[in-house]
Amino acid sequence: MVKQKVEEEIRSGIIMTVFSTASAVGKTLLSINMAAELARSGYKVCVVDLDLQFGDICNYLHLSPQKTIYDAQKAAENTVGQLDYGEYMTPYEYEDTIFSVLAAPQKMEEAYNISTQAVIEVLAGIRGEYDYVVLDTTATFSDLNLAVMDLSTMITFVGIVDFIPTIKNMKVGYDTMRSIGYEKNKIRFVLNRSNSKTHIELQDVEQLLEERFYHILPNDFLTAIDSIHQGIPLVINDEETALSRGMQELIEKYTNRARQRSSRKNASLSSWVKRLFK
Amino acid sequence: MPEYRVLLIESNRIMMERLSSVVRNTKNFQLVSRAMDAREALGQGGVFVPNLILLDIDAQESMQLVREFVRAFPQAGILALSSQWNAQAASTVVKAGAKGYLIKPFTSDELIAAINTFGNSGMGMISEVMTFFSPKGKSGKTTLIANLGMALAQKSGQNVAIIDADLQFGDMAVFFNLDPQSTIVEATRDIKFLSPISLNSYFMPIADHVRVLCGTKRPEFAEDVSPKAFAEMISMARSLFRYILVDVPSAFNPISVAAAEASEQVYLVSMISGGYEDKHMRRALDIFKAWPDYETKVKTIFTRVEPCDIQKQQQLETLIEYPVCSILPNEYLLVSEAANNGRMAVDIKPGSPLARSIDLLAAKICGRPHKVG
């Protein structure tokens, strides 16, 4: 514990958790693209798959990990002093972009038997080695998710304005996070698939949440699917799409590079819409 | 309402007086005979032509006793009376021929509720619990369960329950536009003090023969639901419903595992959405293969299958190396509108391809010979 404390003082990576209260809203896709864009911008980045049972990060990146978070926490448990987490990372590399992946366990029983405390210790260890640690989660307030959200710098709350039950769960989830004491500023709503088939108005959802969307990503299901089948994050793919641009803009906001460009929260929507209709 | 001619057997004098008074003061109930000793009632009770026998099973060896009463009074319904709920005892007396099980002392309302609940079909231990499990999130199972529940009730004419155990973010209440007074949180909290009749009131009626036990109102209540109490609740619900459909949180967790273990059938449900659904399905199946009877117990369903035909089904079977029990077509707009309006019970028209596929599955389930065990 003392060792970790010292490390944190030396270097303490920013932990960005990607969370949602509904599944299949694009958490994993967003996580890997956030990681890729941060890496492309020159940061040292690690993305951790915290969907321990059914994690998709390695599927989406076409990686076959030799070591996983299971091995890392096991080693941390048995090591006195500093553990080199590099050994447990699976590198992802495409053209000039490199980032690390801490994969979900290979076996289900490994996944089922990892304690929250063990994950937290691993995260404390690796945050000392990276500028950014991106955490991909599951859509539930599990012990694990609550614990990692506690130590997160920022929580990207991904939502889809799709149908009423999903929005109800977003509202209920947000209220829960506020009630357990998370600052408004720590939670950033990102709307995915903004123009999907729906009869629900964005404004109505914002009114219900009493919060604006920090960023809005366009609906481009086919591009997204294509990217996960290719195993290449959209933001580092050669082809620029509205979706990849939208993700890059999110990272620009997070890293404060977009500050001068616009202070309006919906800037990204208007900018890509404008481009589409030019 | 028919007239009930009650024969009451109760070994405790004070309880006897108390129950007698309740029976006498209940409309349409007539107390025609009473006995403290069951043997005596067997010998002499027939004179009074009872059509309802309230039989205390705490004092005697119940199994044998119930059998003898069934033989002696073939035209009468028998309700077993006990001072506490005991799933084992309930199962035993119903197997022996009793219609149901009632906790004493009871009120007039509880007596009437028991008659209404157990009246026609009997509480029947023939019940089938089905858990709908999704490996990784979004599966379309809530839509499936809602519609399947209704199809089963229509086909069988028997009681169907839907239990929303997707504890944190269950959507069943929204699907049916319910504002429940009681949810799974209260039902599991109170289970120790409940009998089947009182448990029934925790379920909200949504259509003929279909009732729903709603999920938590807020995610933080989820931790109040203990897997043990949850399993006990399912076990008790068996005496109320022919079919019990349980919606559980995705992945393996204490609640989804408890539900799966309490079930006759586990349906693994996954939505085709262009990702790695087949991989997740295989991964989940691998875990269930630890069960010796997994081939009969575990079935798979894919939703949003396009094109929804036999070739596609076979292709999926090849991918997951396991039989695919059912495939459902994509009806996104139909389903989302029905859910948005809280009209899941009426908005999915019987003729739609989705409804037809679900009907087919319901027919399979109804036609299945019941396996005792």
Automatic annotation (TrEMBL), chain A:
UniProt cross-references to Pfam families, sorted A to Z: CbiA (PF01656)
GO BP of this protein: negative regulation of cell division
GO cellular component, one term: cytoplasmic side of plasma membrane
CobQ/CobB/MinD/ParA nucleotide binding domain mapped to chain residues: 17-220
GO MF, one example: ATP binding
Name of the featured protein: AAA domain containing protein
From TrEMBL, chain B:
Residues with the 4-aspartylphosphate modification: D56
Superkingdom to which the source organism belongs: Bacteria
Presence of keyword Transferase: no
Domain Response regulatory: 5-119
Keywords tagged on the record: Phosphoprotein
Gene Ontology CC annotation, any one: cytosol
Record keyword Manganese present: no
Pfam family, one: CbiA
GO biological process: negative regulation of cell division; phosphorelay signal transduction system
PROSITE patterns with a match to the protein in the record: RESPONSE_REGULATORY
GO molecular function: ATP binding; ATP hydrolysis activity
InterPro entries in alphabetical order: CheY-like_superfamily (IPR011006), CobQ/CobB/MinD/ParA_Nub-bd_dom (IPR002586), P-loop_NTPase (IPR027417), ParA/MinD_ATPase (IPR050625), Sig_transdc_resp-reg_receiver (IPR001789)
PANTHER family, sorted: SEPTUM SITE-DETERMINING PROTEIN MIND HOMOLOG, CHLOROPLASTIC-RELATED, SLR0110 PROTEIN
Protein name: Response regulator receiver protein
